[in-house]
Design brief:
The protein has 10 helices and 4 strands, in the order βαβαβααβαααααα. It is α/β, with parallel strands linked by helices. The protein folds into 2 domains: 105 residues, 3-Layer(aba) Sandwich (Rossmann fold), CATH 3.40.50; 65 residues, no CATH class. The radius of gyration is 17 Å and the shape is globular.
C-alpha cells in the first residue's frame, strides 16, 4: 500500500511531477501518483481511497471547486477555498501546469526546447495563423503544446527537465515539500 497518494488531473501532470521530483532528488518510493482523467473525477476517486490514506494533489486553478467539493464529500471537513486546499496538501497551478512551466522557463527557453525537438517549423506555422497573431508568445506556446496527442506529456517532461531547482514552479515545489 502507498504511503501517500497524489492526485493529478492528467498524464502530463504525472510526468512533470515525477520529472521534477527526480530533478530535486526526491524519491517517490511509496508514493502513488493517481491520474484522475480530469478534475470532475476528483470526488469519485477520493471516495475510493481507504480511510487514513494520506492524500495530496495538484490541480488547475479553474478546477478548484471540484477539489473543494470532492474533499468535503470524502470527509475531509469544510473546504471553502485555496487556503483550505493548501492546508490539506492540494496546490493550484495558475491556469494549468503547462502555463506554470512556460512562465518558469520563459518563452525563449521553451522555444529552444521545441527547436531541439525539431518542431520549430510547426510552432512558426501556428504563430502565423490569424487566430494566433494577437496572442502573446506564452499563449502561443501553450496552444502549441496542447495541439497534438501526446505532446502535452512530452513537453511536460522536456520542460521539467529544462528547469533548474530554483525555477521549479511553486505548486510543484510545495507539493513535493509535503511528501
Amino acid at each position: 500500500m502507498a504511503e501517500a497518494v497524489v492526485l493529478v488531473e492528467g498524464e502530463s501532470d504525472r510526468v512533470a511531477l515525477a520529472t521534477v521530483a527526480a530533478l530535486l532528488g526526491r524519491d517517490l518510493v511509496g508514493v502513488r501518483i493517481e491520474v484522475l482523467g480530469g478534475a470532475t473525477n476528483a470526488g469519485r476517486v477520493l471516495g475510493t481511497l481507504g480511510e487514513g490514506t494520506r492524500v495530496l494533489g495538484l490541480y488547475d486553478e479553474p478546477e478548484e471547486r471540484w477539489f473543494c467539493n470532492g474533499l468535503q464529500r470524502a470527509g475531509f471537513g469544510k473546504v471553502h477555498d485555496r487556503d483550505d486546499l493548501e492546508t490539506l496538501g492540494f496546490f493550484a497551478c495558475i491556469r494549468d501546469l503547462e502555463d506554470e512551466l512556460i512562465r518558469a522557463l520563459g518563452a525563449t527557453r521553451v522555444r529552444d526546447v521545441i527547436e531541439v525537438q525539431g518542431e520549430l517549423a510547426s510552432l512558426l506555422t501556428l504563430q502565423r495563423q490569424p487566430a494566433q497573431r494577437e496572442r502573446t508568445p506564452e499563449q502561443q506556446l501553450h496552444r502549441f503544446i496542447g495541439t497534438r496527442s501526446g505532446r502535452k506529456a512530452l513537453y511536460a517532461r522536456l520542460l521539467a527537465e529544462a528547469l533548474v531547482p530554483e525555477q521549479v514552479p511553486r505548486p510543484l515545489a510545495s507539493l513535493l515539500s509535503r511528501l
